Amino acid sequence: MALTIPSIFKSCTAKQNKSLSAIPSIRQTPLSNEQEWVIEVQRAIKEDIAGDEDVRAQVSIFCVPQALVLCKPEAYVPQLFALGPYHHWRPQLYDMERYKIAAARRIQGRLNGVVEFDGVVKKFVKKEYKIRCHYHKQLHVNGETLAWMMAIDGSFLLEFLQAIYFKNQPKAQQEAQPRTTLSKRMEHERAKVSFNMIVRDITMLENQIPLFLLRKLFKLVYSQKDIADEELSNILTEFVREVSPFKITVDSLILVMDNFTRHAHLLELLYWTIVPKVKENASEINGVNEQNGTDVESKEEIRGDPTVVQKAMKLLWKILSRINGAPIRYIKRLIFSRPIMFIVKCPWKMITALPVFSLIKLPVKNLFSQPTRKPKSHYDRESDGEEQPPLVEEIDIPSVTELVRAGVKFVPTSKDLTTIRFDAKTVTLYLPIINLDNNTEVVLRNLVAYEASVVTGPMVFTRYAELMYGVIDTEEDVKTLRENGILVNRMKSDGEAAELWNGMSKSVRLTKVGFLDKTIRDVNEYYEGRWSVKCRVLMKKYVYASWSILTFLAAGLLIFLSCVQAFCSVYSCNSRLKQLINSADES
C-alpha cells in the first residue's frame, strides 16, 4: 500500500471524483457481467453533476499504513463502535448498532417536525460525491446506503460529543440546557470501560466521518440556527480538551476553532490544535546558517588545532600549577625536562607511526578530542535539490537516566511542541507537559498515522514521538520525568508508561524537523563532550571489548620509565633526591 499520495489524487473536484471513482460509487459491488459494467460506465459519464455546489474536497480519511498496523492492530481498528464505511460491516461490531439506531431516533425527535429523518438522508445523498472524496479507499456501497450510514453514525457521534460537553459544564448550566439520554447515562457510566472505548474508537483514523455532515446535522437539530456554528465550536472545544494528552493553549484553540469548518474530521481538528504549523523555509535557512558556521569552526580547528599530546600537557600543567610543595616541584621539573619536551614537540604523526605508539594513538585522541558536529552531508544532503530524510543515527539520544547523570535538568513547559529546546548554558532540556491515561496510546498512534498519511510538510508529531521514544527506556526514566512535572501518569504504573513509548518506535518514514533536530543534536553534543561519558565510552571500547588498554598502560609505563632513566642519566637523581628530602626536613 502506498504511503504517500500524489497531490493530483489528493484533491478532487466533483467531476474528477465522478471520472475516477464514480463507477463503483453508483454500484460499489462487483458487477455480474461485462454488459452491466458497460451500462454503469455510460451512466457515470453521461450523468451531469456540474450543478453540485461542492466544488472541491480533499482525501482525508485513509487506511492506516500496514507498517503501523502490524505493531498494534487494536490501536487502529475500532473495538466497540464503527463510524463510517471502513469497518461498518464487521460482525464483531453489530451488537452496538442498536445504540446508534436509538441515537438516530432521539435525533429524529429533536428535529421538531422541520424535516423527517428521511429528509436528512436525502440531504446527505446530495453530498454523496463530496463524501466519497474524503475517503481514500473505494467504498463498495451505493449512494443511498452511504447516506443512511452517515446519518445514523453522525447522530450517535453528535450525541456523544454533546454528552462530553454537558458533563464538563457547571451544574447550573447543565440544568438550564436540555440534555440527551446519553449524557444522563454518562454520569453513572463514565468510570466504566465503555466510555474510554468509545473515546478511543472515535479518535481512530479509519473510524472518521466528514465533519461537514456533523455540522449539517447539528444545524437541523439546533433550534437557534444563527449561532449553531458557535455552539458546535464549543462542543468540539470540549472534545479536544477531553481527548488531548497535551495542555491546549487558548491561542491555538481560538485559531483552530474559529475556522473549524476547514477541517475534515475530528482527528484532523485534534491534530492541528496540538501540532503547530512549522515554517519549512525558516527552518531550512537556519539549518544552512548553522552549517555554514560549523564549516567556519571546522576550518579554524584545522588551522589552529594543537596535537593531542600538547593538549594533554596543557591540561596537566593547569592541574600542577595549582599545587605546590617540594615533591610537586620535583615532579614538575621531571615532566617538563628536555627529554619529555622533546617528545611533546615531535610531530605527533611521526611518533604514532612507531609500532608501540600506534596502539595508543586512537584511545588518547578520543579522550582529549572535543565533540564535533557531523559532516554537512550528514544533516543537509540537499545538493541535488531534493530534501533527504535524516539518518537513523541522528535519532539516537541518551536516555533520561543517562542525561541526569551527565547533569542535565528537565523542565516542563505549558505551551506547544515548538517550546522543545535544549539550553546548553543552563544544561536544561525543556519538554511540554503530557498526560498519560488509558486513551493516550490510541490517540498518539492515530495522530502519527494521520500525519504520515496526510501531512506533506515536516512531520513534527512523529519526530516528537521519536524523541520521547529515545529518552524513555525504563520505568526509571518515566519516574524522573514524572517527578519533574513533564509526565502526568494516570496509568497503572511507570513501567506501563515506559512500554507505551517503547512500543511507538515504528514509524513510516524518517523526517526532518528543524527545531527538534537541533535539540537532539545539541543534547548529543553536550552529552558526548562530558569527561565521564568519554571515559565510560573509552573503557567500554578498549577495556571490555578488547585488551588494547593493557597495551596502552604498558606503553605508558615504558615511556615513563624511559623518561626517568634518561633524566637520571643526565642528572644524579640520588643526590638530588637526598637534598630535597633534607631541605624538606629542615623546613
Characterise this structure.
- The chain has 587 residues and is mainly α.
- 59% of the residues lie in helices and 4% in strands.
- The strands form three sheets. The protein has a three-stranded mixed sheet, covered by helices on one side. A two-stranded antiparallel ribbon has the order 1-2. It has a two-stranded parallel ribbon with strand order 6-7.
- β4 (421-423) and β5 (428-432) form a beta hairpin.
- The longest helix is centred in the N-terminal third of the chain and has 25 residues, at 143-167.
- Residues 1-29, 281-306 and 372-386 have low confidence and may be disordered.
List the helices and strands and how they pair.
Blueprint (H helix, E strand, L loop, with lengths): L6 H4 E3 H13 L7 H13 L9 E3 L7 H4 L27 H14 L6 H10 L1 H7 L8 H25 L3 H6 L4 H9 L3 H10 L8 H11 L6 H16 L6 H8 L8 H9 L5 H25 L3 H14 L4 H10 L2 H8 L2 H5 L8 H8 L7 H4 L20 H6 L3 E5 L7 E3 L4 E5 L1 E3 L3 H14 L6 H12 L3 H9 L3 E3 L4 H9 L11 H15 L2 H14 L3 H23 L2 H14 L1
Parallel strand pairs: 3-5, 6-7
Antiparallel strand pairs: 1-2, 4-5
Helix content: 55-70%
Terminal Cα span: 87 Å
- SS field, number of helical segments: 31
User: Rough shape?
Assistant: elongated
Mean pLDDT: 75
How much is the radius of gyration in Å?
34 Å
What is the makeup of the main sheet? 3 strands, mixed
Poorly predicted spans: 1-29, 281-306, 372-386
Q: What class do helices, strands and sheet pairing give?
A: mainly alpha
Summed up, the domain count is 2
Strand content: under 5%
Question: How many DSSP E strands?
Answer: 7
Q: How are strands sequenced across the largest beta sheet?
A: 3-5-4
